[in-house]
């Protein structure tokens, strides 16, 4: 009997599980009658992997609604492989009967998501086709080499004998990054003066036990990582919330440090929207479609983000916003949608404010993208103490906008922003931007704005933040945050551009996800041998290395130092140059992750179909 062909997937979290699902779905069509073994390597339980493992605090929540998370393809997915439907997280929870609180418009804990992902993995394995085996190795992959003839060899942490494979897929998910020069500087200062410095890390893995009650801790970053640290250092230490007169209040336990937080923008990510559109969804894309962009700039060697792309992007966002305002809230505008839409389509973006001024009476109903992006720009407060009530009012106002359907145009803008991002990634026009603009404008500013507006925490988290601020446990540093060692005082000193003055702290937390080249030994080995390269962008006097593993845009194969795509090595996830990815798919949205997984699976199976399979395996 022929030995099976072997695929090794390094990483058994959601992405590895999704690729497994597509392999199992496609194998009957592309590799009929040939035995196959899929081996997954991950020290954490399959399904959830590291980030979504069961063994973490119940205070760690999902950042997406339970009804918006699925691991199964549906009729909306445009891929070559077969569609294999299955339950979303919400549907699974309803059928399971033990997670009644995880339905539809609710946010699950990461522990509940872990149980869903474990169920998905077990379900896939149980339903695997005849002739396919699935094996899990609960260990780390430490190296990837190649034998003469092209066989892939995956070295493991806990055994001398490696795995041999016909093909390898790297799906390790989020990675720890090499320390930056700033990390090294701050850590050295902390060690010298007996302070605490926590570099960028995944919160569930971070040791927060060393932060003392009442200690002043500076947190640099105001996104998801901050929210997790906030929860663990307050409620996670025994604090509690109560509701008084319809308002959330925090009851300190006395073990909390005092958290001083700031960022470049100076405000928290906007809370998740708690309502649905009132009117019909705007037809998107309208002014920013990938095919139109490619035709428009076909003859240009170089384009400018701010002059060429942003006016079209902004007009598309405005189209989504005003479509909802005019069609769902007609009493707040001076004309009908058809008339407004005709004028809106005719005018360039710089003339739109004039049209809006004539047709939208209330300033609060007008879309101001600059003010949304930088709500503290142009504001200076006499002191940090006087900044506090302004930030509390800002958070409260955002919670109202995100919780009351009268502000549903904000959801129209959100849908348009997501559409713009999809079309931007699908278009070839980013290749006509300078390297500097691609790094600063697209990967920097635009990605930051996208996450700030659309990827914020559940509203309850920002209510908790507001309650903590009112209790004095959280203090705001404002925009343009800076942190410097003070060798004379032996402390970290931090402040911002929103107010004069600074705070002295004995601990510093880099409250953001790690970025830069991975510390993973398997990837390091590939880099050192020239079998993989960082994504480097350069032109003129500008040079930037992202630290991301370069892969083929077409089928996600690993690119080597000579620019060649390896025929038997694939990689996908946040450690690669596949910048348009999502950890989880939303049902009935033709989710990109399903299409990516299907491409990898079908390409891999096509390669295996041309591979002789009568050989001895390294076991």
From TrEMBL:
Residues 8-175 form the FAD-dependent urate hydroxylase HpyO/Asp monooxygenase CreE-like FAD/NAD(P)-binding domain. Pfam families: NAD_binding_9 (PF13454). It comes from the Bacteria. This is Adenylate cyclase. It comes from Actinokineospora fastidiosa.
